[in-house]
């Protein structure tokens, strides 16, 4: 029952917001999203971390003739993402400005997204997943098209078209799987042990990979991302980068790796290379950006590559690392977008060439600068912060299988440091121009989201057990049913080959 | 009580860490009520606690066998990340050195930065360094050593950037961070690569593994080189030495620590990793070569500098180069002794020159002069620092260099020549600075330059006394050789090279007979050393240029090609959709025309290959 609450409470709440007097709208939205956050934490409390299987199962017959049943459940792969989703929803609502236009619609759409995304993470039926996956598309389109900044309609349309294509590809893969397998239902458990020949698996997996690859996004399917993230307002960019991208990585793990393990193993070397290209490409393009929001957006492209690398290597450690990276990246991207949004709101520009000296304790934005250092360094993988733990686990887990790709991804973290140093040097360091340094005061309530996120980043960086314990049993089970990746190479073998 | 202190030895890094976090309260909240100073006092108190604690533990662990403790940090999917600590005389002695120097440097900073408002930031960073270095020496694991080194890299960025509104500081902080990060990432690659081979990251177990390991030589070399790169960055070795020079833009009290103990973190890890690095002869040769190049090159560059701080920073690279040589030839004890004597002497030198810079408002050697009568305490400190640094009996540096030379005699006698040359050149370089600062007649900048007040002078004098007493301490700890075992020839050679260097330096720079400034006869050579072998240009032409070009190119590719294709597809479908919409007027002719035009186009494009030969032939 509790899982359904996570989905339907916000969705019904979104409708109920229509009845709330406009003065109390934000409060109502905060209470709604806060209660689902507490609900997801309660699930985490009740969750048995030693149990690899689906827990809190819910199963209601719905359209049995179509094979569509209302089947929900949570395991170690989805639980961290559920918590991430509810946390970021609350933070996005909290950090949205008081003067938001049409607040009723805005908060309603955000809550709708939260419910739909939770539904997608919880669905144990492929068709049900697909429904939730598509439901979240329209609210996002509206949120970008109505509350976005410059070029918003272009960005929103681009987002819509890309994601629609992604949905179509995934739908083809799902229907194809059921059809080829001759199954009578879209239930995940019925399809997981499919016995299709390898070539059919490969074709279906290709659809899944490209479909979710658009959502993640992976290079070269990523060009909707910078436009969309930049056009979206800060709270929406948080949700886009923090949660929506995770729908892609979750999908690739659950429906790519989980349904087609054999084909996944065959493609693994290619996937690792694809991941490496994404990492290096995202980081290199980010260095050339002149707009800090765009820079952060491109950093996201690079960081998604680590997740794919962890998935491709298929070791227990790399998978744990990849799930941890999904969570860590969500937190880090959220704090970065929040701070960048704050800089834009106070200073009025996002241009690197104009910004300067925000560290100034009296006239600048000292706390924002300090937290920007923290967020940037977490993204660059400095130890003590959450980004390091997840990246390190991915690297250590992948090194034994794909040494060269892993080392190149380490180079990627170096390039990440390069653009974040550029960002920090230009925005926080330097001399503040007194002529323009007349910024509005930063209120305490504007600081709260960043403080919550930075404390979480710090806590999980120092106590990573809390980050990885959820997914260990599930990833162990995932690896146990897999054939080992055949192209196991060590550095010595790579050298011998040449 | 003593047992309690021994069992809570892990608190030593925590004191400073607590101080660092508490300093945040003054930035900028409490500063309005109390001013920035309490942050400094608080950190000083914390450092004092840490020092007293280290001292009491050191007394207990002296001549006791090393103890290993372990604390579980993270266990996941078969990976066991256990933080293991080593409590021994060496490690606790190192914390004693770190906290002691911090105590002096922080007192010095309270005096030096009297007028500054950034205290909470600055002292928090000093405390972060203290905490980091104490944890580094206590921890017995390569993985956690890497974590500490990486955090200290970030610390360097922030502490160099203390005065962030000056443009040179901003670029200096950036370069320091990125150069050290390059070394760190290679170290990370080494950390990743060694675990599948050795199955452990604990230093002592790595040593045991290395004793019997059968590793593919190429792999051993690559892993060794990656592991070597981390200390290279930290110890400012060629070609990663540039950052130390640029880091001189930071406040001098942080330089005291950086030049003495922060660079030594790299040496510490190097010494710990010696058994692993020794698996590959190539790595050892590389280590010795890098050390020798940096040692000789560093002194030559130092001689050509006109900035006091920069001249000193290159001598730091020089001595770390000697440490590289020592570790490369397997003499870890000599390396440790060298690190110790260098740390104390170098800290004294920086404090002395810092006190000159503070009152003379310039760090340009050519603008100084004639300070000996006005600044006798600083002058004596400087001289004692020089004597403690180079091979000058009976101070610390002499014994360290002697032990190193003694060991080289048996293994690689050719390196003794390098050692003597470096020692002589350093003696010359230091005497040159002494001459330019203290000898000659007063200049405009030094006319009014009295000794500083006690907060700056007292720590310097304490350190002066400590430098002088170092041989006695070493003697009482039994670290000095007996007179009978002393290699007297070597000792004489060392003394001779020091005296020659000092003598020539004194004649040229302290005496009045030779007019200044002195230039090398060949301008090109002078510039080569003065501009640091053109390393900044080298960087700009190589790695920086490549990354810059690559990022521009990829960005162009991303905008024009990847996004271009997408937009083109979108535009075409949109355009045809729009066109269709407008022509959809209900008139049948348009449909027919469209279909006719479409069919013709398709037919033409298909049949083109058949048609075009006829068109071309007349």
TrEMBL record, chain B:
Domain NADH-Ubiquinone oxidoreductase (complex I) chain 5 N-terminal: 73-123
Any one Gene Ontology BP term: electron transport coupled proton transport
Residue span(s) of domain NADH:quinone oxidoreductase/Mrp antiporter transmembrane: 140-422
Cited Pfam families: Proton_antipo_M, Proton_antipo_N
Superkingdom classification of source: Bacteria
Swiss-Prot/TrEMBL keywords: Membrane, Transmembrane, Transmembrane helix
Membrane-spanning segments: 6-29, 41-63, 83-105, 117-138, 144-164, 185-203, 283-304, 311-329, 335-358, 379-402, 414-431, 452-474, 494-514, 590-615
Any single Gene Ontology cellular-component annotation: membrane
Protein's cellular compartments: Endomembrane system; Membrane
Topological type in the membrane: Multi-pass membrane protein
Gene Ontology MF term list: NADH dehydrogenase (ubiquinone) activity; NADH dehydrogenase activity
NCBIfam families for this protein: ndhF3_CO2 (TIGR01960), PRK07390.1 (NF005633)
Role description: NDH-1 shuttles electrons from NAD(P)H, via FMN and iron-sulfur (Fe-S) centers, to quinones in the respiratory chain. The immediate electron acceptor for the enzyme in this species is believed to be plastoquinone. Couples the redox reaction to proton translocation (for every two electrons transferred, four hydrogen ions are translocated across the cytoplasmic membrane), and thus conserves the redox energy in a proton gradient.
Entry protein name: NAD(P)H-quinone oxidoreductase subunit F
Originating species: Petrachloros mirabilis ULC683
């Amino acid at each position: 029952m509790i899982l359904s609450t996570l989905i339907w409470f916000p969705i019904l709440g979104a409708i109920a917001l229509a009845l709330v007097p406009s003065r109390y709208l934000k409060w109502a939205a905060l209470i709604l999203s806060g209660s689902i956050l507490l609900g997801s934490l309660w699930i985490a409390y009740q969750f048995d971390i030693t149990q690899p299987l689906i827990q809190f199962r819910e199963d209601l017959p719905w359209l049995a003739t179509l094979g569509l049943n209302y089947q929900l459940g949570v395991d170690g792969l989805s639980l961290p993402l559920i918590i991430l989703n509810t946390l970021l929803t609350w933070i996005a609502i909290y950090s949205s400005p008081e003067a938001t236009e049409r607040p009723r619609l805005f908060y309603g759409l955000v809550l709708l997204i939260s419910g739909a995304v939770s539904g997608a993470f919880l669905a144990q039926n492929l068709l049900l997943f697909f429904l939730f996956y598509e439901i979240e598309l329209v609210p996002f389109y509206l949120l970008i098209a109505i509350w976005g900044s410059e070029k918003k309609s272009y960005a929103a349309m681009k987002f819509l078209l890309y994601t629609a294509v992604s949905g179509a590809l995934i739908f083809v893969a799902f229907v194809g799987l059921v059809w080829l397998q001759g199954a009578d239902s879209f239930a995940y458990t019925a399809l997981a042990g499919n016995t299709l020949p390898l070539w059919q698996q490969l074709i279906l997996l290709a659809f899944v990979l490209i479909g979710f690859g658009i959502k993640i996004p992976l290079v070269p399917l990523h060009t909707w991302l910078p436009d969309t993230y930049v056009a979206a307002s800060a709270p929406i960019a948080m949700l886009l980068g923090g949660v929506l991208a995770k729908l892609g990585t979750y999908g690739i793990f659950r429906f790519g790796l989980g349904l087609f393990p054999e084909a996944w193993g065959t493609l693994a070397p290619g996937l690792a290379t694809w991941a490496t290209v994404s990492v290096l490409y995202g980081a290199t393009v980010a260095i050339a950006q002149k707009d800090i929001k765009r820079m952060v957006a491109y950093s996201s492209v690079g960081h998604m590559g680590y997740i794919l690398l962890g998935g491709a290597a298929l070791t227990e450690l790399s998978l744990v690392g990849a799930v941890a990276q999904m969570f860590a990246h969500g937190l880090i991207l959220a704090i970065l977008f929040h701070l960048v949004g704050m800089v834009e709101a106070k200073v009025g520009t996002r241009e690197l060439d104009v910004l300067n000296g925000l560290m100034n304790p009296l006239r600048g934005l000292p706390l924002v600068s300090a937290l920007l250092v923290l967020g940037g360094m977490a993204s660059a993988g400095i130890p003590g912060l959450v980004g390091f733990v997840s990246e390190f686990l991915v690297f250590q887990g992948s090194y034994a299988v794909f040494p060269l790709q892993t080392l190149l991804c380490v180079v990627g973290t170096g390039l990440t440091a390069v653009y974040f140093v550029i960002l920090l040097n230009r925005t926080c360091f330097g001399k503040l121009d007194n002529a323009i340094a007349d910024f509005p005061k930063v209120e305490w309530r504007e600081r709260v989201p960043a403080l919550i996120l930075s404390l979480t980043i710090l806590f999980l960086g120092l106590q990573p057990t809390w980050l990885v314990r959820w997914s260990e049993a599930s990833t162990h089970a995932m690896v146990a049913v897999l054939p080992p990746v055949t192209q196991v190479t060590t550095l010595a073998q790579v050298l011998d080959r040449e | 009580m003593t047992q309690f202190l021994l069992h809570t030895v892990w608190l030593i890094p925590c004191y400073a860490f607590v101080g660092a976090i508490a300093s945040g309260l003054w930035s900028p909240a409490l500063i309005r009520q109390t001013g920035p100073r309490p942050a400094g006092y608080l950190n000083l108190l914390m450092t004092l606690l840490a020092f007293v604690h280290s001292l009491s533990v050191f007394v207990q662990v002296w001549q006791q066998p090393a103890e290993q403790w372990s604390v579980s940090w993270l266990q996941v999917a078969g990976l066991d990340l256990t933080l293991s600590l080593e409590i021994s005389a060496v490690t606790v002695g190192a914390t004693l050195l770190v906290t002691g120097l911090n105590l002096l440097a922080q007192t010095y900073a309270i005096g030096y930065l009297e007028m500054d408002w950034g205290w909470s930031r600055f002292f928090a960073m000093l405390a972060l360094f203290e905490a980091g270095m104490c944890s580094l020496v206590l921890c017995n694991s390569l993985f956690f050593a890497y974590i500490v080194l990486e955090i200290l890299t970030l610390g360097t960025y922030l502490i160099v950037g203390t005065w962030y509104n000056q443009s040179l500081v901003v670029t200096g902080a950036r370069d320091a961070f990125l150069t050290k990060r390059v070394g760190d990432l290679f170290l990370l690659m080494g950390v990743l690569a060694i675990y599948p081979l050795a199955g452990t990251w604990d230093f002592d177990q790595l040593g045991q593994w290395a004793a019997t390991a059968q590793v593919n030589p190429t792999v051993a070399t690559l892993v060794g080189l990656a592991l070597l790169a981390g200390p290279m960055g930290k110890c400012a070795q060629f070609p990663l030495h540039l950052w130390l020079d640029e880091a001189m833009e930071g406040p001098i009290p942080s330089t005291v620590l950086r030049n003495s103990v922060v660079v030594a973190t790299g040496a510490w890890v190097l010494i710990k990793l010696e058994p692993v690095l020794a698996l590959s002869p190539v790595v050892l040769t590389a280590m010795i070569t890098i050390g020798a190049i940096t040692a000789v090159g560093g002194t030559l560059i130092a001689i050509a500098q006109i900035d006091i701080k920069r001249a000193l920073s290159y001598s730091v690279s020089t001595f770390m180069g000697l440490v590289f040589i020592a570790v490369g030839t397997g003499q870890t004890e000599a390396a440790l002794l060298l690190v110790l004597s260098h740390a104390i002497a170098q800290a004294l030198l920086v404090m002395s020159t810092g006190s000159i810079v503070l009152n003379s408002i310039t760090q340009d050697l050519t603008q100084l002069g004639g300070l000996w009568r006005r600044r006798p305490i600083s002058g004596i400190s400087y001289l004692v620092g020089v004597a403690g640094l180079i091979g000058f009996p009976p101070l610390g540096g002499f014994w360290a260099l002697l032990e190193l030379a003694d060991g080289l005699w048996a293994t690689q006698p050719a390196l003794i020549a390098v050692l003597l040359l470096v020692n002589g050149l350093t003696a010359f370089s230091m005497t040159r600075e002494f001459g330019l600062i203290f000898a000659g007649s007063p200049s405009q900048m030094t006319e009014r330059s009295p000794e500083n007040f006690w907060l700056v002078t007292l720590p310097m004098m304490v350190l002066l006394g400590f430098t002088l007493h170092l041989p006695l301490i070493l003697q009482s700890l039994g670290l000095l050789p007996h007179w009978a075992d002393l290699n007297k020839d070597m000792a004489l050679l060392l003394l001779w090279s020091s005296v020659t260097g000092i003598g020539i330096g004194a004649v040229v720079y302290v005496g009045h007979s030779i007019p200044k400034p002195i230039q090398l006869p060949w301008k090109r050579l002078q510039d080569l050393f003065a501009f640091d072998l053109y390393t900044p240009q080298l960087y700009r032409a190589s790695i920086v240029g490549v990354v810059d070009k690559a990022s521009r190119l990829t960005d162009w590719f991303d905008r024009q090609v990847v996004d271009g294709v997408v937009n083109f597809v979108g535009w075409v479908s949109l355009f045809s959709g729009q066109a269709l919409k407008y022509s959809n007027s209900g008139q049948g002719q348009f449909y027919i025309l469209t279909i006719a035009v479409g069919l013709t186009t398709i037919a033409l494009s298909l049949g083109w290959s058949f048609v075009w030969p006829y068109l071309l032939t007349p």
